[in-house]
């Protein structure tokens, strides 16, 4: 159903209430998501992006029912990923030959996924497209935010930035706008989105935000590809991104671990206690990885100035849940964060040494050799863990 946003610009996307995971099963989406597509109806009619493939027929049929399908003059593909471009094959089956405006890399991604030689028109930063009534589309390449093919599109006069994946959230809502939804949930989902998708590209994002600012484009609305449209103080999310892109951290220490027979769990809880005793002001969060949502935990690590990682020794190594999580942290390319390791063992005891090596390889500053305990920690060893936590608190 078409929903008017401003003047001749409407939302024509899809709300996906049932979405539980994204990027296959890599990212959890506790609040569903939306696939935001936009229709501009000036002298020329322009469609900005489409929706995910499972909703392609519904999407195209809705455009036909609204009486606009056959009036589309241009399609803008800000990004080739299937959650944005999934309806293009059905759309172009119905309106063949319609020009698609996209980056050179988007031509590669779209051809690679759909194996179609559509009517591509390559654009780069600063290129403009007249759509009538004195309005223009201005294209801004945004490579690696979060694919090499990404771009944003700006609509002059109406001052709308169609930002694609930047500034979005996986947040299903019929309310459409940022000022109409629960603010705590909104910013929680916005940070989770950033921490799990955009954090690896923070340095690129920082430069791109400066570049967009230098263009001097007034922005009245930021129309994202997922989640709400920012209409109330839209630059507030830009300000958040500016903070998040600058080696963001809060006064928080996050402890993550897995355990076999609860010895490593006991160490984790005593380390947390020691941190709190030494510094009551620091937020301490503790996660047993197999019982936690790893994407939520990644967000907590993103917020933290230190992460403390624990695993018992198994087969001369560490538990695969912990190994996988460290690899995920490495992929996020976190900067300016400290780390320490702990774990129990029965025989050979390599886990803590390996954890330190893996954490260092993931870009963390490893503070010390860590703490390792043979068998289940008794009262003395539990107290050692408390003291270890105190040391970590003082080493911030």
Quick structural gist:
The chain is of the alpha/beta class and 396 residues long. It contains 12 helices and 24 strands. The protein has helices spanning 56-65, 82-85, 88-94, 104-114, 183-198, 202-214, 235-244, 263-278, 294-303, 320-332, 351-361, 379-394; strands at residues 3-6, 9-11, 14-16, 21-22, 27-28, 33-35, 38-41, 45-48, 74-76, 100-102, 120-122, 128-132, 135-141, 151-155, 160-164, 221-224, 252-257, 283-288, 306-310, 313-314, 317-318, 338-345, 365-366, 371-374.
Can you walk me through this structure?
This protein has 396 residues and is an alpha/beta fold. It has two domains: 3-244, Ribonuclease Z/Hydroxyacylglutathione hydrolase-like (Metallo-beta-lactamase, Chain A), CATH 3.60.15.10; 254-394, Rossmann fold, CATH 3.40.50. It has helices spanning 56-65, 82-85, 88-94, 104-114, 183-198, 202-214, 235-244, 263-278, 294-303, 320-332, 351-361, 379-394, and strands at residues 3-6, 9-11, 14-16, 21-22, 27-28, 33-35, 38-41, 45-48, 74-76, 100-102, 120-122, 128-132, 135-141, 151-155, 160-164, 221-224, 252-257, 283-288, 306-310, 313-314, 317-318, 338-345, 365-366, 371-374. β1 (3-6) and β2 form a beta hairpin. The mean pLDDT is 96.
Topology, pairings included?
Elements (H helix, E strand, L loop, with lengths): L2 E4 L2 E3 L2 E3 L4 E2 L4 E2 L4 E3 L2 E4 L3 E4 L7 H10 L8 E3 L5 H4 L2 H7 L5 E3 L1 H11 L5 E3 L5 E5 L2 E7 L9 E5 L4 E5 L18 H16 L3 H13 L6 E4 L10 H10 L7 E6 L5 H16 L4 E6 L5 H10 L2 E5 L2 E2 L2 E2 L1 H13 L5 E8 L5 H11 L3 E2 L4 E4 L4 H16 L2
Parallel strand pairs: 8-9, 9-10, 10-11, 15-16, 17-18, 17-19, 19-22, 22-23, 22-24
Antiparallel strand pairs: 1-2, 2-7, 3-6, 4-5, 7-8, 12-13, 13-14, 14-15, 20-21
